[in-house]
Sequence to fold (224 residues):
Amino acid sequence: MNTPFDEKPRRPGLLASLRASFLTGLIVIAPVGLTIWLIWSVIGWIDSVVLPLVPYDFQPEEYIGINLRGIGVIIFLLFTIIVGWLAKGLLGRSLIRVAENVVQNVPVVRSIYSGVKQIAETVFAQSERSFEKACLFEYPRKGIWAIGFISTTAKGEVADRATTSGDLVSVFVPTTPNPTSGFLLFFPREDIMELEMSVEDAAKLVISAGLVYPNPKDPSRPEA
Fold:
């Protein structure tokens, strides 16, 4: 019970209020500003690489008098679409096969081309695939729990040689705070527990080091 002698809580001063408002505004502005700056910088970089390769007579700057940022991106997208369309045809596949045979005979270029091609196929060709579910399992020992992402059911030699009674599931175990790095582990399906939270919410939980949890009432939606 309060008494007349109790001290009244002090209201924050003007500087404290301004500081809190500044930090709140910074939290709102920083992600938007950095995103716009990054996109603007990437567009400018693509323009600086693509436009010098285009003959000056075909550049819009000659006709409108100003250099429009983003023209190089449009030219690059159109060129990439045309190359992809040609590569799907019989003639395009034949030309690519001949060019790859020539590259394979050059020692240094062969190594560089193979590495870049493997990275490109992993990043772009498999972009339509995504993790199925988030899961919970005991790792690196019993009593310690970790979050992972179920990718696929193990197949081929991995599934044949592993001694397990049921299916073997491939699980990606991300690291904190960088979820793009981690470990690929294979677990028996009975040793993992699928979570109701979405893969996006599980990734937020990993990135935030356990500070951002999904909504307990509806795991499919993040908590407000």
